[in-house]
Structure formats: structure tokens, C-alpha cells
Design goal:
- 37% of the residues lie in helices and 23% in strands.
- The C terminus is likely disordered.
- The chain has a single domain, classed as Rossmann fold.
- The strands form three sheets. Strands 2, 3, 4, 5, 10, 14, 15 and 16 form an eight-stranded mixed β-sheet that branches. Strands 1, 6, 7, 8 and 9 form a five-stranded antiparallel β-sheet that branches. It has a three-stranded antiparallel β-sheet with strand order 12-11-13.
- It is globular.
- 43% of the residues are buried.
- With 371 residues, the chain is of the alpha/beta class.
Length: 371
């Protein structure tokens, strides 16, 4: 045995049952009931492995709160609204959003907050951050959230849902697997037989991919749940994540530890393993169940459309020179398209019930500005 119990367990599983598909490996790394990355620690911030947009600046959550208010008004200002966050981190984004929403008492009174979180460490942090919120509850899955008009926020949620990887070989597309090399170390491999007729399901861009190309896909179950919910019960969902606008070939499976990239096969359960989100696939699945899709657009464009520059200027006006500099740096990080910026890497997709024809920040500029 080593000091890596999950690695030992995965090796034992491969020895007994054969090579393991990438999706199963990713699922074990993140959600193993004892050793999974997301069930055992707080991964956020300087002391953790990565930093999310809400941790960069309060402006991010505040603007999503104002976006929520805009959508609520478009829904006809219902007297009861479920505000649902998927994978809510430390509760920072929700706390900032609710602070912004306090200026609108009719909406604030209408809210019941639902946090979908499986990590007990983070649930505790969220409870402390949101201790003053009166109507709040926690759930393991969105399936457990009661029915009703809803606005759903999902920031960096879809990137950790397990992916299937397919690799193109001479005789077709094979499921990519994790196997053991001659020294007993984990390595990538491919299932011996191709997946029958897999190319029929592929987007046109991918069908012409060369031998050796990798294509990633996620099952549509989670996005279809969100889309069906807002279609049937009124409301909208906002998905923010890093990924690509068009379905294409490419290997994006990666690990992040201590804010740097790491080998995803080296220390299972001890690093965050993710893959880019295919926004075209999300949009297609949502439209297939009859929801309306808005966007996607780049995060920088979305935040500028809903007023981040104005909010930053207002905060800087009241701040000390040092704090004003911090706000300026945070603004740049959230909206810039260059190295270190999140502005173009991250995309924003809206999904709503069909009657909501335009949503702030995701429709054309004039409509977004008018909401």
C-alpha cells in the first residue's frame, strides 16, 4: 500500500476488471465516497488548488444577482422564486448576489435559496457564509429541489462532470481507457473494439478528424434536467464555464493542483480533474427538449453588457488607492482576453422557458442594455 489509497484502489480495479473508461476514472477521482477530491476538502482560494470568478471579486456575484432580478421581472415578478446554485463553492457568489438583491425587497422576500452541494466541508463553509439567510436549504442533486419557478446559477459546474473520451484509430472510434503499463503505472489506452456506428453521432467538424484524434463528450442528462425544469416550471438557467463554442476534436482532460497544471494520472483524488465544456452540445441538448437557448457569449462580453465597468468605477470611487488598484486588477482578470484573463476562455449560456425571448447580457446589446 502507498499513501495514495485511491490510486491503489484504481489499480486493483483495473487488475481485476480490466482497463477503466476515462469517465469512470474521472468519477472516482472526484466523487469516490472516501477519497474523492470533491467530497473531502475545500479546494478554493490561495491555499487550495484553484480560484473561481466569485473569489476574484465581489462584482461577479453582485452582477449575477442583478441579472437574476432582470430575469425575475421578465418572468412577471412571481411572488415565489427558487434561486438554485449548482456547485456553490464557499457560498461567496450567492452571498454577493443576495447582497445586491436586497435593494429589491419584493424579490428578496420571494426568494427561497437552494444550494446543490455534495461536499460536507464546503457545505459547512456555505452555511457560515450564508448564516443570515432565512429561507435556505441544501441538496445532493437538483432532483431533490422542490418544484416551482426557478433561476439556476451554475458557475464552473459542468467542467467537472465526467467525460467520455473517444480516440480515432484506423478501424473507427474507440473508447479511451486507463490501463496499467508494464511497471504497474497508469497510462492511457483504447478499448480493443471500435464503438459501432459512433461516427454517425459526430458533429461534422469531427468526422474528418485524423487518426489519433480525441473527441470528448458528456452525457446530456444534467443539461436536460435543467432545461426541462425551466421549460415546464418557468424560469431560466445561467451556465458559466470554460470551454469551446463549437463541438470539435481535442484532448482537454487535465488536472490542476496548487494553481498549476498536473498529470491527471499521477495522484487520483488529490488534484482537481476537469475537461472543457462543449457549449454547442449543451445548447443542442437544451433545444432538443424544447427550452430556449440564449448565447453562448464570452464571459468578458457578458459581464460588460450587464454593467461590470460601471460597477467597478462606482467601487473604485469610494475606495482607497490600494483597494482601487485591486478592483482594477480583478476587473481585468474577469474580462480580459489575454493571458491570465478569464474573458474569452469562459463562456456564458442561458437556457429559459420558451416565452423569455431575450435575456440580459445574452441577447443583442440593445436588448441586454434595456433589461
Amino acid at each position: 500500500m502507498t499513501d495514495q489509497p485511491l490510486l491503489d484502489e484504481i489499480k486493483a480495479l483495473i487488475k481485476s476488471s480490466g482497463p477503466m473508461p476515462v469517465w469512470r476514472y474521472m468519477e472516482l477521482c472526484l466523487m469516490h465516497p472516501r477519497y474523492g477530491y470533491y467530497v473531502s476538502r475545500d479546494p478554493l482560494g490561495r491555499e487550495g488548488d484553484f480560484t473561481t470568478a466569485p473569489e476574484v471579486s465581489q462584482m461577479f456575484g453582485e452582477l449575477l444577482g442583478l441579472w437574476t432580478a432582470s430575469v425575475w421581472k421578465q418572468m412577471g415578478s412571481p411572488q415565489f422564486l427558487r434561486l438554485i446554485e449548482l456547485g456553490p463553492g464557499r457560498g461567496t457568489m450567492m452571498a454577493d448576489a443576495l447582497r445586491a438583491l436586497r435593494v429589491l425587497p419584493p424579490l428578496y422576500q420571494a426568494l427561497h435559496v437552494h444550494m446543490v452541494e455534495v461536499n460536507p466541508v464546503l457545505r459547512e463553509r456555505q452555511g457560515a457564509t450564508l448564516s443570515a439567510v432565512r429561507n435556505i436549504s441544501w441538496h445532493d442533486s437538483i432532483d431533490d429541489v422542490p418544484d416551482g419557478p426557478s433561476i439556476i446559477l451554475a458557475n464552473e459546474y459542468f467542467d467537472v462532470l465526467p467525460i467520455h473520451q473517444m480516440v480515432r484509430l484506423e478501424n473507427g472510434w474507440h473508447e479511451r481507457v486507463i490501463e496499467l503499463d508494464g511497471n504497474g503505472r497508469l497510462q492511457f489506452g483504447a478499448a480493443p473494439e471500435p464503438t459501432p456506428r459512433f461516427e454517425v453521432l459526430l458533429p461534422p467538424l469531427v468526422r474528418a478528424a485524423p487518426v489519433g484524434a480525441v473527441f470528448e463528450w458528456r452525457p446530456d442528462g444534467e443539461i436536460m434536467k435543467l432545461a426541462t425544469r425551466v421549460r415546464d416550471q418557468d424560469g431560466a438557467a445561467l451556465i458559466i464555464d470554460y470551454g469551446h463554442l463549437r463541438s470539435d476534436a481535442g484532448d482537454t482532460f487535465q488536472a490542476i493542483a496548487r494553481h498549476t497544471f498536473a498529470d491527471p494520472l499521477k495522484a487520483p483524488g488529490q488534484a482537481d480533474v476537469t475537461a472543457h465544456v462543449d457549449f454547442q452540445a449543451l445548447a443542442r441538448a437544451a433545444e432538443d427538449v424544447g427550452a430556449r437557448v440564449h448565447g453562448p457569449v464570452a464571459q468578458g462580453d457578458f459581464l460588460k453588457r450587464i454593467g461590470i465597468d460601471t460597477r467597478a468605477a462606482a467601487l473604485m470611487q469610494k475606495a482607497t488607492p490600494e483597494v482601487a488598484t485591486d478592483i482594477s486588477i480583478a476587473l481585468k482578470r474577469l474580462t480580459d482576453t489575454g493571458r491570465g484573463g478569464m474573458g474569452s476562455m469562459f463562456k456564458v449560456l442561458g437556457i429559459s422557458e420558451p416565452r423569455l425571448t431575450g435575456i440580459a447580457g445574452l441577447s443583442d446589446l440593445e436588448q441586454a442594455g434595456g433589461n
